[in-house]
Structures are given as C-alpha cells and as structure tokens.
Amino acid sequence: MRDEADSRKDEASALEEEIAETCGILNVATGRLVSLIGRVLATESYAGAGIRSPEQWVAWKCGVSLGRARSLVAMAR
Q1: Angle at 73 between CA 71 and CA 75, to 5 degrees
Q2: How many domains does the chain contain in total?
Q3: I need a surface site. Which of 42, 59, 62, 76 has the fewest CB within 10 A?
Q4: What range defines the domain where residue 6 resides?
C-alpha cells in the first residue's frame, strides 16, 4: 500500500515536471510569435487585398481564432 502511494507521488511529480517544461516551451514560442507579429505590424506587411485588420491577418496566417489573434496583436503592440 505504501509503495503504491509512493509510486503515485513519483508519477505526479514526473507529470508536473513535464507540464512545467512544456509550458516553458510554449511561452518561448509565444514570445517569438509575438515578436514576429510586432515586426509585421511595424512594416504593415499584413495589408493586402481583402484584409481588414492585422487581427484578421494573424487569425488567417496563424490558424487561430479571431479572439486569440486579438490577444497576440495586443501583446505585440
């Protein structure tokens, strides 16, 4: 019974470590994406036929919802 409890604690710790590591990777990737979007905003390279806003362009190019695109553009600004 004690071994089972220890095993569950070990598994939980391993999962927590993996989640923390994955979150770190996501945070770095998001930071890079926001930086790139900032460059797109600065150069207005999002402007084109049929594009009404940078948010629309980000949603299209990044394959994210319009709400997420708004958030990314806001961070980039």
Answers
A1: 70
A2: 1
A3: 42
A4: 2-76
